[in-house]
Amino acid sequence: MNRTIRTMLGVAATAGILALGVPAFTGAANASTTSAAASAGLKQGQSFLFTYTFNGHLKVAGGNFTVDHRVYLAVKFNTGRVAFSKWEIARTHPITPGGAIYVETTIAAPCAPGNNGYARAYDEATRTWSPKLPVTICQRID
Fold first, then answer.
1. Of 22, 68, 75, 141, which has the fewest beta carbons less than 10 angstroms from its beta carbon?
2. CA trace torsion 54, 105, 62, 72 (10° rounding)
3. Residues 6+ positions from 75 with CB-CB distance below 8 Å
4. Which one-letter DSSP state was computed for residue 20?
5. What is the model's pTM?
6. Beta strand pairing status for 70-77 and 99-108?
7. Is 53 helix (H, G, I), strand (E, B) or coil?
8. Which residues pair with 57 in a beta bridge?
9. Is 27 exposed, middle or buried (0-12, 13-18, 19+ CB in 10 A)?
10. Given 2.40.128, 3.90.930, 2.60.40, 3.40.50, which CATH number is that of 2-19+45-135?
């Protein structure tokens, strides 16, 4: 199970890096390098999100946020109604570029296919939103 999750995270993170055109790290990357680049006014890559199932819940993760700063994660139905939200501090991560967040939501997963919502994250330091990521939000039918 852990191997599967690590593989999924590695593939998702790599896909996010390739899709965003972020250069591969050629040496050891650390928070001071990322923070130094940000404070020098260099543009970091666009933030991104990805999802997976963990512990029977939808987990939303992402990268390229400002390290050691707050990030607001919202999972909303397509109607705009909030299904889950949380503030999180972006931290360095060995496979996720920039400041990373990994948030376990209270939304049950996996669900039947069909995206009825989206996830989006707001980087408070840069005042920017990540692109919307379509997600499936499980709903009880009683």
1. 141
2. -170
3. 58, 60, 82, 83, 84, 85, 105, 107, 117, 118, 119, 135, 137
4. H
5. 0.68
6. unpaired
7. strand
8. 54, 108
9. exposed
10. 2.60.40
The separation between CA 79 and the C-alpha centre of its own chain, rounded to angstroms, equals 21
Query: C-alpha dihedral over 22, 131, 58, 140, to 10 degrees?
Result: -160
Q: Where are the domains of the chain?
A: 2-19+45-135
Q: pLDDT digit of tens for each residue in the chain (142 aa)? A: 444 444 444 444 444 433 333 323 233 333 333 444 444 444 568 999 999 998 999 999 999 999 999 999 999 999 999 999 999 999 999 999 999 999 999 999 998 888 999 999 999 999 999 999 999 999 766 5
- Distance between CA atoms of 64 and 129, rounded to whole angstroms? 11
